[in-house]
Design a protein that fits this description.
With 402 residues, the chain is of the alpha/beta class. It has two domains: 6-277, Metallo-beta-lactamase, Chain A (4-Layer Sandwich); 285-386, predicted glycosyltransferase like domains (Thrombin, subunit H, Beta Barrel), CATH 2.40.10. Helix content is 16%, strand content 36%. The longest helix has 14 residues, at 240-253. Residues 59, 61, 145, 166, 210 line the site of one zinc ion.
Length: 402
């Protein structure tokens, strides 16, 4: 289920939908609720030009298809959608075209199948399929999941991305096939829904879990010698702070790990993978230019230096720093709250406050003096009162910052 709410603001609450662009082609991996926003974004970008896309479905559990009725390009006759997925294993859906018939059934919504005017071309795949679309080579393998699921490897221009969600480790032959599929991938997107402790407990009545964990993903990433691991398919009940902790544990074993987050973008080239942007920090923030102290650790030694805070909100802060940092690096920002003119007041104590967070954004040479802009998301919550800004500001900082 989608899990929007205050506890998932940073990592996001949509169900699976990943966009891959390669050689002028567009691939969409799964049609979870994230597909709604992607559809709008694509239409805005195309500005009236027709959409040509390849939608690769791993399987037909709700969380992987429920975005389709909200995918606006599906209702345009100019859209060309090539649909790929395994042969369905249930009764309601017998083939790929059936998905639309079921999703648009009058029992559930006012939408009719004929309102989906796009040209949809279905192709069934199985584990071990090997196809080429344009100049992108795609291979699949079967995953261990109730009703089955497919993992996809997309390879273009010497870069390989492997999307393997909804997999429970433990079936030797399927684990082996996935390890082969993922071998040497630049980006391995892997199911990490459960904690290792949760995964060790069987489901109700011994039911299959159908999902993995961060440590199973890390093991597979090492075995398959992938370059970067993305923890994916977070549990809907997992709060941002809990994902921070899972990520920290995974990074201790496999440093090139990140946790999938709403709007995260990754550039992959044969010799370099660059995670470069997240959507802006949401929520109210205020411009609060003032001197702060930043504390971090570099190569085991403590590092402490002054920096210049630009804005701050409940979820994070943005400051200019003479030092640069790595993404996801933990640090703390020490703020002496201003007196009379303060925009923020901490309710329980005043004076010196240390806010811990991790680096979410790095803007090289963000200031005239060559300092680096650092966006931090807080990893602990704190309570503040927001007071009107002096001079009648609107309470929002630079919308482009972080
Ligand atoms: Zn599933
Ligand atoms: Zn799923």
């Amino acid at each position: 289920m989608p899990a929007p709410g205050p506890s998932t603001l940073r990592y996001g609450g949509n169900t699976p939908c990943v966009e891959v662009r390669a050689g002028g082609q567009l691939f969409i991996l799964d049609a979870g609720t994230g597909l709604r926003a992607l559809g709008r974004q694509l239409l805005a970008e195309l500005a009236g030009d027709p959409l040509h896309a390849n939608l690769l479905l791993t399987h037909y559990h709700w969380d992987h298809i429920e975005g389709l009725p909200s995918f606006e390009p599906l209702f345009l006759a100019s859209t060309n959608l090539r649909l790929f997925g395994p042969v369905p294993q249930g009764e309601a859906v017998r083939d790929l075209v059936d998905i639309l018939r079921v999703l648009f059934d009058s029992s559930f919504s006012p939408l009719r199948p004929e309102s989906a005017r796009a040209t949809v071309t279905p192709t069934h795949l199985t584990g071990g399929s090997d196809i080429t679309l344009g100049d992108t080579h795609i291979r699949t393998c079967t995953l261990n999941h109730p009703q089955g699921a497919l993992a996809y490897r997309l390879e273009h221009n010497g870069v390989a991305v492997v999307y393997a969600t909804d997999h429970e480790p433990g079936k030797v032959d399927l684990d082996r096939a996935l390890c082969d599929l993922a071998h040497d991938a630049h980006l391995f997107i892997s199911d990490a829904q459960f904690t290792p402790e949760e995964l060790a407990v069987p489901g109700a009545a011994g039911a299959a879990r159908g999902h993995g964990s961060w440590d199973a993903s890390v093991r597979l990433a090492r075995e398959a010698e992938v370059k970067n691991l993305v923890l994916f398919h977070h549990h809907p009940a997992r709060a941002d702070e809990e994902i921070d902790r899972l990520l920290a544990s995974a990074r201790e074993v496999f440093p090139a790990t990140c946790a999938a987050a709403e709007g995260m973008m990754i550039d992959a080239e044969p010799d370099r993978v660059h995670l470069w942007a997240l959507h802006g920090r949401r929520g109210q923030r205020v411009s609060l230019p003032m001197a702060v102290q930043v504390e971090a650790t570099r190569e085991g030694s403590p590092l402490r230096h002054p920096a210049h805070l630009k804005d701050i909100g409940f979820q994070g802060a943005y400051f200019l720093s003479p030092e640069s940092y790595e993404r996801e690096q933990p640090l703390s920002v020490e703020i002496t709250w201003p007196g009379e003119e303060r925009a923020f007041r901490r309710t329980e104590d005043e004076g010196l406050v240390r806010l811990r967070g991790t680096v979410a954004r790095i803007d090289p040479k963000a200031s005239n003096g060559g300092w680096t802009g650092i966006g931090v998301t807080f990893t602990e919550s704190f309570t503040i009162d927001v007071l009107p800004l002096p001079g009648g500001g609107n309470g929002r900082g630079d919308p482009d910052a972080d």
